[in-house]
Amino acid sequence: MEAIELKNVTFAYPDGHVANEELNLVIRKGERVAIVGQNGAGKTTAVKLMNGLNKPTSGDVLVNGINTKNQTTAQISAYVGYVFQNPDDQIFNSNVQKEIEYMLHYLKLDQQEIERRVSRAVELTGIEGYLHMNPFDVPYSIRRFVTIAMVLALETPYIILDEPTAGQDLIGIKTLSNLLDRLQEEGKSVITITHDMEFVADNFTRVVTMANKRIISDDSARNTFWSKEIITEARIKKPQIGEVAEELGLKGNIIFRHELVELLKKY
Ligand SMILES: Nc1ncnc2c1ncn2[C@@H]1O[C@H](COP(=O)(O)OP(=O)(O)OP(=O)(O)O)[C@@H](O)[C@H]1O
Ligand SMILES: [Mg+2]
Fold first, then answer.
1. What is the full DSSP assignment across 73-93?
2. Given this model, what pLDDT does residue 194 score?
3. Which run of H or E residues covers position 18?
């Protein structure tokens, strides 16, 4: 099956700390999924299971039917690209362009293909103006886009973004939204961890919620944000539009601005 599948996966770190318990999840090729939940819930641990950086302590992770336990992280990373939560963990080169090209040279692609991939990744992330700078000299928000461009250039069918919204201004958020749309048009899967619930409501229909090492819900954004149990247990914040709708006692489990506007115009 063209999917990432987690089958009853439990994961403990070498120090014995159990960070994921009995995760079951299927993300098909082409799907766009948000993963939300409180700090320390186990989100990063879970996505690292999807790209082979973590191997299950028990249970199985399948990527397009291939069990990650028999594969190296390098083999899995041909299918699953992972953008680290902290960009500084992913940057090694002294120049943005070199950074994006680095893995492409390693993969021994020809020069024309490298140029095509770099220009696509640069265009998608809007970092044209920074190619000759040292990645550590560019603003944090741009540095995040440098690491996103590095992973986009690998052109994997699955892409994981670990908190890409952190530290982004309005333009950064807009660039991320456009990026999600473009990748979906190209048939890619994008799995995004974020604490920005407005971003989730605006960009995702499927939301996986984690709390205390487990997946507690896998549902639409609307059902997720209107479930008192889920938002309480995962300590997430309903998008503001939803909070206003709730305070006004409006029907329809509103989470979108246009829904609120249309309803209020009727009054
Ligand atoms: N290398 C490690 N060794 C031991 N425990 C770890 C390690 N990395 C993370 N943990 C612990 O595992 C738990 C889950 O961490 P994880 O980073 O997956 O959470 P998260 O949901 O991504 O949190 P955040 O929203 O803060 O990024 C936490 O209790 C964390 O302290
Ligand atoms: Mg994390």
1. HHHHTTTEEEE-SSGGGT---
2. 97
3. strand 18-28
CATH number at 1-79+156-236: 3.40.50.300
pLDDT single digits (tens) 160-216: 999 999 999 999 999 999 999 999 999 999 999 999 999 999 999 999 999 999 999
Q: Are the C-beta atoms of 2 and 28 separated by less than 8 Å?
A: yes
Nearest protein Cα to ligand 1, atom 2: 13
Closest CA to 61 of 25, 18, 19, 14: 25
Cβ–ligand 1 contact at 36 (below 6 Å): no
Note the pLDDT tens digit of each residue in 132-171: 999 999 999 999 999 999 999 999 999 999 999 999 999 9
CA angle 216, 259, 224 (to 5 degrees): 0
CA-nearest residue, atom 26 of ligand 1: 39
41 lines ligand 1 (CB under 6 A): yes
In the chain, domain spans: 1-79+156-236, 93-154, 243-267
